[in-house]
Amino acid sequence: MVDSEEQSRITANLAVVRLYLKNHFPHYILTEISVQNLYHMFVVANDRLHQRHRLKVEWARLSDPGNTPENTRLALESSNVASGMIQVGDSDYYW
Length: 95
What we know:
The chain is an alpha+beta fold.
């Protein structure tokens, strides 16, 4: 069971990831799949370019009390997640 503080943290961290992906994949459609307590998957797709990239974020990363939205933003940038997603192609990029 997720308490309200944890749910707020997860929601805020998901918003940060969404913004990051929208900024790095501006002409892509963003969809999401969530398997609570396991992972949250983001899929960015551009049918015109025939490209699709997937980012799988562990639930523990999203819910960690020490992982603030600012820490999430910094980690996405410093890890260069978008580049990693492109490099793995159509496979899942785990983060």
